Each structure stands twice: as structure tokens, then as C-alpha cells.
Amino acid sequence: MVSFGYIFSRLLKKARGNAIADSLVHPTSKLEAGSTIIRSRFDRHSFCGYDCTIIDCDVGGFCSIAGGAVIGGSRHPMEYVSTSPVFLSHRDSVKAKFSKHPYQWRARTTIGHDVWIGDNVLIKGGVTIGHGAVIGMGSVVTKDVEPYAIVAGNPARLIRMRFSPEIIEGLLKMKWWDMPDHELRRIAPLFPDPEQLLRQEGFL
């Protein structure tokens, strides 16, 4: 039996809401409470867990992003004498300004379709995660990830590929994520068997 305390704590967690600015989220996608989404886009049927920070990022369709993920964001000018924002023109947490050098770094991060990102993953700004990739929980991703690769660790390294090269090639050609919902309902019964699905649809 679920206790009142559990229900109350869940309601409290959801009641925090999330901060969304200059972003486009498809109506079929879901962003959980406590997340900050800035200058980003979510395609259809994707979700983002609790307490994520996603900045300057394009998220494909059918993506699963677990709680605590940090994707994209800015950087400090390591090539300057100092990395401190007190020498930069934009507003920041610090109040003092010794100079106002213009500095903007907004690399766009791309998350492909059908990507699964585990809990507390960190993804550097400007990285591209290929379609169908899986990022293990707690990973730190600093480089591009191939389609259908499973990576994990700090820094994230290839563990294995999800499927054989032939299956991967077929799925990338099929682009099932671009199909309308009624077509997905038709082929969904075969999703547990990628080979059979690809053969039926003529991609293998």
C-alpha cells in the first residue's frame, strides 16, 4: 500500500514546475519538473526526466533522457588571461566588471532520434549523438557518438554496438522515426525483432 507521505512527496516534486525559455517542445513530448530548457527543441514522443539542464540543443524524436542530465551549455574563455566573467561583457552571477570583452560561445548540441541517455549524464556542448545511441548513466560525453553505439564512462567510450552493421544500415535507411503515428502502429508489433521488421519493410 502506498503511503500518504510517498504521494505527498511525489506531488511536491512535480509541483516545482520547470524553466523553459526560447524553446520548442512537441505537444507529444514530456518534460518533468525541475528541469531547465533553454534555446532548445524537442521532437515528438520524447521525454526528459527530473532536474535536467538542456541548453542550445536539438533533441530528436522518441528520445529518453533520464533525470539529472546536463546537455550543452556555454564555456569560459580559456585562451584569455582569465576565465572569469568579470572581464566579459555579458551579465553573470558576479557583480564586478573590470572590462567588457564580448564573448559568446553557443555551440549547438544534437541528439539524434531514439537516443537513450541515462541518469546524471554530462554531454559537452557541440557534441552530436547519433540515432539509436545509448549513453550509460553517469557518463561524461566529450566527443561525437556513432549511431546505435552504446557508450559509458568518463570520458565515455564505446562498449559495443546495439546491432550488426547490416541491421544498423537498414534502420538508418528505414528512418522509422519519420513515419506518421498510424504507420508506427502498423509496424510496432515487430519492434522486438529488428531483422524481421527490416525484411518485411524491404530494408534488409
List its salient traits:
single chain; 204 residues; alpha/beta; UDP N-Acetylglucosamine Acyltransferase, domain 1; 7-stranded mixed beta sheet; 6-stranded parallel beta sheet; 18% helix
What is the fold's blueprint, element by element?
Layout: H1 4-15, E1 19-21, E2 24-25, E3 30-31, E4 36-38, E5 41-42, E6 47-48, E7 53-55, E8 57-59, E9 64-65, E10 70-72, E11 109-111, E12 116-117, E13 122-123, E14 128-129, E15 134-135, E16 140-141, E17 149-152, E18 157-161, H2 165-174, H3 181-187, H4 194-201
Parallel strand pairs: 1-4, 2-5, 3-6, 4-7, 5-8, 6-9, 7-10, 8-11, 9-12, 10-13, 11-14, 12-15, 13-16, 15-17
Antiparallel strand pairs: 17-18
Q: What is the H/E order?
A: HEEEEEEEEEEEEEEEEEEHHH
CATH homologous superfamily of the largest domain - what is it? Answer: Hexapeptide repeat proteins
Q: Mind describing the biggest β-sheet?
A: 7 strands, mixed
Name the CATH class of the largest domain.
Answer: Mainly Beta
Low-confidence stretches: none
Shape: globular
Main sheet: which strands, in order across?
A: 3-6-9-12-15-17-18
CATH architecture of the largest domain: 3 Solenoid
List the total number of helices: 4
Output the structural class. alpha/beta
Query: Which value, in Å, is the CA radius of gyration?
Result: 20 Å
Number of domains: 2
DSSP, total strands: 18
Mean pLDDT: 91
Helix content: 10-25%
Q: What fraction of residues sit in β-strands? A: 15-25%
Query: What kind of oligomer do you see?
Result: single chain
CATH topology of the largest domain: UDP N-Acetylglucosamine Acyltransferase, domain 1
Kindly report how far apart the N and C termini lie: 49 Å
